[in-house]
Automatic annotation (TrEMBL):
Name this protein carries in UniProt: Ligase-associated DNA damage response exonuclease
Source organism: Terrimonas ginsenosidimutans
Molecular-function GO term, any one: exonuclease activity
InterPro entries hit by this protein: MBL, RibonucZ/Hydroxyglut_hydro, Xnuc_lig_assoc
EC id: 3.1.-.-
PANTHER family: BLL1145 PROTEIN (PTHR11203:SF49), CLEAVAGE AND POLYADENYLATION SPECIFICITY FACTOR FAMILY MEMBER (PTHR11203)
Entry keyword annotation includes NADP: no
Keyword Hydrolase appears in the UniProt entry: yes
Sorted UniProt keywords: Exonuclease, Hydrolase, Ligase, Nuclease
Length: 341
């Protein structure tokens, strides 16, 4: 049996002929990074290769280091392995990793979504022999409404709060969801304030040349009235903390795919929930896998057991793989607290 082009090891995904890892969860010599979320990009490796857009985010989160970058569809050769990055549509800079060696092609999806959000790059399915896919929302219940419809719902909620003199506090990841929300909120014409962790990501992207709407950082000495009726974007880690008191009276809206299940809104004790996700839904996952024409599919984090079983039932050879990905919420909270500090 030939050696697999990607092996699943205790350090992460490893390409033996290329002698590099993809999104390793332990320090390695050379790490190829799909995107800058903390469960996929971890500190300590000797060098990193990512999409150009990810570099400022990796520098923000991992600190100084050796960062090589390439654009989408710009192949490089590493020890005879042809490597290229392709849009994943998850967050700014997020990429799928395509590997080609001795006539065989493997693709690791990283995290991805199939709807073009207008900011993260339009997802492109990549034909391959073996496809490694996430399955964060790999159950039929997860079926997203179009972004345009969700944005209208958010805007209506914001304007209703505004008419009642309430501050609208939107809970969203500091990297990805927060930037995606900015054009939606900007359309209301109301001032936008950012939590420190969100602001730091915002500034890193602006400094790198990304055009994002005008915002203000929430400052300790700001008068309370400045927030009244306006909009604050903050990470979930800020909810329920003393930091929130300055916005009273306020209404909390959680932006997450988990809001598709009504009970999760009650558990979060929020006023509104918007099922806005940066991951593919059930249909997006299935359409993508079929579009790759892969002969074999490995399913990683999420509902990998149920999803891989379904793929086998419909005639697509699949197996589940245990990884340390998928702890996005916990990892992001750690980063958000560090970035705010």
């Amino acid at each position: 049996m030939p050696t697999p082009l990607i092996q699943f090891t205790d350090r992460g995904l490893y390409c033996p002929p290329g002698k590099f890892h993809i999104d390793p969860w332990k320090p390695v010599d050379k790490a190829v990074i799909t995107h800058a979320h903390s469960d996929h990009a971890r500190p300590g490796s000797n060098s990193y290769l990512s999409h150009t857009y990810s570099k400022p985010l990796l520098e923000l989160r991992l600190g100084p280091g050796i960062y090589e970058t390439i654009g989408w569809n710009e192949p490089v050769w590493i020890n005879g392995v042809k490597l290229s990055l392709h849009p994943a549509g998850h967050v700014i800079g997020s990429s799928q990793v395509r590997l080609e060696y001795e006539g065989e092609v493997w693709v690791f999806s990283g995290d991805y979504k199939t709807e073009n959000d207008g900011i993260s790059g339009a997802f492109e399915p990549v034909k391959c022999d073996v496809f490694i896919t996430e399955s964060t929302f790999g159950l039929p219940i997860y079926n997203w409404k179009p972004q345009e419809e969700i944005f209208r719902n958010i805007q209506d909620w914001i304007m209703q709060n505004h008419s009642q003199g309430k501050t609208s506090v939107l809970m969203a990841y500091s990297l990805g969801k927060a930037q995606r929300l900015l054009p939606c909120v900007e359309a209301t014409g109301l001032p936008i304030f950012l939590h420190g962790a969100v602001y730091n990501v915002h500034q890193a992207l602006v400094a790198a040349g990304h055009k994002l709407p005008a915002i203000q950082r929430v400052q300790q000495d700001m008068p309370k009235d400045i927030f009244k009726g306006n909009v604050v974007i903050a990470p979930g880690s800020a909810d329920g903390t003393p930091w929130m008191k300055r916005f009273s009276p306020y209404s909390v809206g959680v932006c997450s795919g988990w809001m598709q299940v009504r009970g999760n809104l009650r558990r979060r004790n929020a006023d509104a929930g918007f099922a806005l996700s940066d991951h593919a839904d059930w249909n997006g996952l299935l359409h993508t896998i079929k579009a790759t024409e892969a002969k074999k599919v490995f399913v990683t984090h999420g509902f990998q057991s149920a999803f891989s079983r379904y793929l086998n039932e419909i005639g697509i050879e699949a197996a589940e793989v245990k990884t340390e990905y998928g702890q996005e919420e916990t990892a992001e909270e750690v980063e958000e607290k560090r970035e705010e500090g």
